[in-house]
Write a structure and sequence with these properties.
The complex is a heterotrimer of chains A (449), B (294) and C (275). Chain B has 294 residues and is an all-alpha fold. Chain B contains 16 helices and two strands. Chain B has a domain of 181 residues: Orthogonal Bundle (MetI-like fold). In chain B, strands 1-2 form a two-stranded antiparallel ribbon. In chain B, helix 5 runs antiparallel to helix 13. The radius of gyration of chain B is 23 Å and the shape is flat. In chain C, helix 1 crosses helix 13, helix 4 packs parallel to helix 7 and helix 4 crosses helix 10. Chain C starts with a helix and ends in a 5-residue tail after the last helix. At the A-C interface, helix 1, strand 2, helix 4 and helix 12 of A face helix 4, helix 6, helix 7, helix 9 and helix 12 of C. Chain A: It comes from Sporanaerobium hydrogeniformans. Chain A: This is ABC transporter substrate-binding protein.
Chain lengths: 449, 294, 275
């Protein structure tokens, strides 16, 4: 009897639930016509001055700098700067998750009003006609005048698809190191690649893992290591790759990749580096488990709290160029805040994007970074590490754009990482790499546009 | 009574709502997917029909076959090792004292209750080469030579992921078998015991034959579950190093989403659906036996 | 004698395995009391210095209650809809004289075969077409649809095990097919329904992929997706916080499981209905 009662309860609830289901549907179609709900607000063409416009904003939620910009700047100053905008934040994850999510939204016509765009997937959104060309908007409201070099915003087709404070063009590959570990073990800053390998050997003999990098998904080879090694052999080959004047069968590429193979085989990286994530790789370094960390200068501010941390540039094997002469720089005109061209409120979305990029600029400016977007922040006392970073950047004679961002379509770029990741296992030869990757490179569609 | 069971309206009322839901949200979405597999499609725009080009591309790619090989390994291990093991566990807990049984029953489903993310993350920590539990243990008992870079060595990575996956669900399968065993009427055993059968005989001649339906169900679930293994791979290795730990589903995900070749990815999806259909038919062939009515 | 030794051996093996299944709980708890740096020096041992602030810190950045609420709504609704529609369908397929019953089974098997990830983009468009976007139904209906197959197949196995006399007796008492199903058959297979409930609960509770794409909006997000954005937002390096978040998000499932476990057990012993 009791069982029966329970069961009938169970099904009454089930029935009720399924009816709520239908009711929910109906209710939603109704609200579209009448009720003053959130959705209808955004649909109203002219929002009254005190009525808030609701906009969806999506950004990377894995990048430490981006999180700080969102939490400490964009969210905090919103009420003061854009009082009639209400933001619905959507943390998008990072890396593959982020780009896959945006691709899905793009395919189904449900992009946010404003999002942080990245070169890896932006071309696809642009070709679908979903990413706004800012040119007219920011010229009309003269926001463009705040940029020191407005040309840097333009994509190869002459249009402006993303607003960026421009800190990323000052991001270059760096090796961070613990000064005390180097001193205690009698290791000096290497000036050539051979010296670098010798230093690693010394550290290794003393039981110290020389260097941590993020290896998962082939991140380090993809973002900088392959290119840096090519440049350390011959910078001209990197420039030629950017112009599609040579390919990966170039003997210089083989020599360069051979260096990564050697590093992996000689135990420069921690065991299991091919599966090492960014956070843990940095943690290994800050907790002094490794003597060096291979990353980008965007970690400078985060690492400058420890006066024992210094930085130097990847050493070269080329006699023509000294170690500090050549560098790769990050950044692409497609990185930055983008606006959905189908947004119900494009004007406000542009205002929001301008606001976001200004806040981004504030964040970097207060750290003492150099920027394209000018701010009136008075930079306080810069850390030693930041000063060193700026010195290195200004001394560099030849700055080469990132191949991964500026010469590869989505597929080529992804495989560039995957195949590069193989090198870190130490069980994959440079010859194999050249063979595998060059066939992908042949199908690269980047230069066909 | 009989007429009710043949009445078209009552059949309709019983079957239609479920089938409708299923059709709309599970079956129908395959159609657009099949159409896409014959197009050059980047997920945003189609640049026209390409016939069987995507399929040819898939069948020629080494990564696809490697992914198939990995999937086969996972399925075989789950079929030949994990399933018999969970059946044995179920038989074993059936004859334990209530205390042991309850403890085991409680703990066995535990890993399956926890999030895949949590479990995978834990196994990453177990396999970690420097401080991971497995290597630390091997070193502490003097088997340093056995310590290994489990997840970054191409020859061990698939097995390691499979172990994590099977470990998570072996207890659940055991409990499902146990539920089935529990529902077998006790008289059968009593009769057998009078005839002088021991535990093993009783298991093989009474329990297992009577469990056919449950075994078939668990079999299909775990074979198809291991075929479409994704989350563990995603969290533990992201398919790496290189492409060496990708499953077919991962290969599909990678092709469609990461390299933006939706046409090719859809072709993999369609091929995978065919593979799954084939496997299901195979299982049905092997397990089709006369049903035993109580 | 031989028997005794074997018994002990089995007991010990079961005990060790059982403990290994509980290990994740220990692991998470242990992590949650460790400081950021200790995890790397002492990953599995007890904390050398107990840190209790991880929980508070995790709670501050992690809207635990909102995600929890969403997860419960998704999971309960999915389980109820699936069991309601699934048991009817399974009954129809197994007991009614329907020409297409076998075809329906094969048709439903497709749901086991097709992983939800394969069809996420078409699914997303369908949800939009039905105007479900922005409502929780946009996730519940696909979940229920994908859960339906295994539910029907399993219940089918149970219904087939039932003696035909049940319905015959009922029809003599003047029950129609609906009364017979809801008042006689369903109470008998209650143990199977309970098992289904727990299985669906567990699957849905942990579903990640669809939720990530279909419920991207902040206020619709279930726990696992919330958990991921928490993991990634601290850069997957502060394991103490991750441990605390994992414990907090696991507690509800563990509690539900403890209750569900008892429930299944009770219904099984009470349900000598299979005669």
């Amino acid at each position: 009897m009791k069982m029966k009662k329970q069961l009938s309860m169970f099904f009454t609830v089930a029935l009720a639930m399924s009816m709520i289901g239908c009711g929910g549907q109906k209710a939603e179609t109704n609200t579209k016509q009448a009720a003053p709900t959130e959705t209808s607000k955004t649909e109203t063409p002219k929002p009254a001055s005190e009525e808030k416009v609701k906009l969806r904003l999506m950004s990377l939620s894995t990048d430490e700098n981006q999180i700080k910009i969102l939490e400490n700047y964009i969210k905090k100053n919103l009420a003061a700067e854009l009082p009639n905008v209400e933001i619905e934040f959507e943390p998008g994850g990072g890396g593959e998750d982020y780009s896959n999510k945006l691709k899905t939204y793009n395919a189904s016509g449900d992009l946010p009003d404003v999002w942080y765009s990245e070169a890896g997937f932006a071309t696809a959104v642009i070709s679908a006609g979903n990413q706004l060309d800012y040119t007219q908007y920011i010229t009309d409201d003269s926001f463009i005048k705040n940029f020191a070099i407005p040309e840097a915003l333009k994509f190869s087709d002459g249009k402006i698809y993303a607003l960026s404070a421009g800190a990323d063009t000052y991001f270059t590959p760096r090796i961070f190191y613990h000064k005390d570990i180097f001193e205690q073990n009698g290791v000096a800053i290497p000036k050539t690649f051979d010296e670098f390998m010798a230093a690693c050997k010394t550290l290794k003999e003393k039981g110290i893992v020389p260097m941590s990098i993020m290896g998962k998904g082939g991140w380090a080879p993809q973002l900088y290591m392959v290119q840096t090694m090519i440049q350390s052999e011959d910078p001209q080959v990197a420039l030629d790759l950017l112009q599609n004047k040579t390919d990966f069968t170039n003997p210089v590429v083989l020599k360069a990749v051979k260096k990564i193979e050697t590093m992996a085989k000689e135990g420069v990286f921690p065991e299991g580096v091919a599966n090492l994530d960014y956070g843990p790789s940095l943690e290994l370094f800050t907790s002094k488990k490794t003597a060096m960390f291979g990353g980008f200068s965007w970690e400078t501010a985060n690492l400058s709290a420890d006066p024992n941390i210094g930085m130097f540039m990847w050493p070269t094997s080329n006699t023509q160029y000294a170690t500090e002469d050549v560098t790769q720089f990050w950044g692409s005109p497609l990185n930055g805040y983008a606006v959905n061209s189908n947004s119900k409120n494009v004007e406000m979305a542009v205002k929001l994007a301008e606001y976001c990029v200004s806040q981004e600029a504030l964040f970097y400016a207060e750290q003492g970074s150099k920027l394209n977007l000018q701010t009136n922040v008075k930079v306080g006392e810069q850390s030693e590490l930041m000063k060193e970073n700026i010195r290195l950047y200004e001394n560099t004679k030849l700055k080469i754009p990132t191949i991964f961002l500026n010469a590869m379509d989505a597929k080529t770029g992804t495989e560039f990482g995957t195949i590069g990741g193989n090198l870190l296992t130490g069980a994959y030869t440079a010859e194999q790499y050249v063979e595998d990757f060059n066939s992908i490179w042949q199908e690269n569609t980047w230069f066909k546009k | 009574m009989e007429k009710h069971y043949r009445n078209k309206l009552s059949i309709f009322i019983f079957a239609f709502p479920g089938l409708l839901l299923f059709t709309i949200f599970t079956v129908y979405p395959i159609l657009p997917q099949i159409l896409i597999s014959f197009q050059k499609h980047d997920g945003f725009n189609s640049s026209g029909w390409v016939g069987f080009d995507n399929y040819i591309k898939v069948l020629r790619s080494a990564s696809f076959w490697r992914a198939n090989g990995n999937t086969l390994i996972i399925v075989l291990i789950s079929l030949l090792v994990a399933l018999p093991l969970s059946l044995l566990l179920a038989l074993a807990i059936d004859v334990q004292t209530p205390k042991t049984r309850n403890f085991f029953k409680f703990s066995s489903v535990f890993p399956a209750v926890l999030s895949v993310t949590v479990i995978s993350q834990m196994w990453v920590a177990m396999y970690e080469p420097q401080w991971g539990l497995i290597n630390s243990f091997l070193r502490s008992i003097g088997l340093e030579g056995w310590a290994h870079q489990w997840l970054t060595d191409k020859s061990t990575v698939v097995i390691c992921i499979t172990i994590a996956f099977l470990w998570q669900y072996i207890g659940l399968n055991a409990l499902l078998f146990y539920t089935g065993i529990k529902s077998i009427p006790k008289q059968y055993y009593e009769a057998a015991m009078i005839d002088g059968a021991n535990f093993f005989k009783a298991s093989f001649f009474i329990t297992i034959p009577l469990l056919t339906d449950v075994i078939k169900y668990v079999l299909i679930l775990s074979v198809l579950g291991s075929m479409s293994l994704f989350a563990h791979v995603r969290v533990m290795t992201s398919g790496g190093p290189g492409d060496s730990s990708r499953t077919v589903i991962y290969q599909m995900y990678y092709t469609a989403f990461s390299t933006s070749e939706f046409g090719v990815g859809s072709a993999i999806a369609v091929l995978f659906i065919i593979e799954c259909l084939f496997v299901t038919v195979l299982i049905n062939k092997f397990t089709a036996k006369e049903r035993i009515e109580f | 004698m031989r028997h005794k030794i074997g018994d002990y051996l089995i007991k010990i093996i079961l005990f060790i395995l059982g403990c290994s299944f509980l290990f994740p709980l220990f692991w998470m708890l242990n992590l949650s009391f460790k400081s950021k740096s200790e995890v790397y020096n002492n990953p599995f041992g007890l904390p050398q210095e107990w840190v209790f602030t991880n929980y508070g810190e995790a709670l501050k950045t992690f809207d635990f209650l909102k995600y929890l609420n969403n997860s419960f709504i998704y999971t309960l609704s999915t389980a109820l809809i699936t069991i309601f529609l699934g048991s009817m369908l399974a009954y129809c397929v197994s007991r009614m004289e329907w020409r297409f019953a076998d075809y329906a089974i094969v048709y439903l098997t497709m749901g086991l075969i097709i992983p939800a990830q394969v069809v996420v983009i078409p699914l997303y468009m369908i949800v939009n077409t039905f105007g479900l976007k922005g409502s929780r139904m946009s996730l519940i209906l696909p979940y229920a649809s994908f859960a339906l197959s295994s539910c029907v197949l399993m219940l089918n196995a149970f219904f087939r095990g039932l003696p035909k006399e049940l319905e015959e007796a009922a029809s003599i008492d003047g029950c129609n097919v609906y009364q017979c199903f809801f008042q006689i058959i369903l109470p008998i297979v209650k143990p199977a329904l309970a098992t289904q409930f727990v299985l669906i609960f567990m699957n849905t509770w942990n579903e990640f992929f669809l939720a990530f794409i279909l419920a991207g909006k902040e206020n619709l997000r279930p726990l696992p997706v919330g958990l991921l954005s928490f993991f990634t937002s601290i850069g997957v390096s502060h394991w103490g916080l991750i441990g605390a978040a994992m414990i907090m998000t696991s507690i509800p499932t563990v509690i539900v499981y403890c209750f569900g476990n008892k429930q299944i057990e009770n219904s099984l012993t009470a349900g000598a209905v299979l005669k």
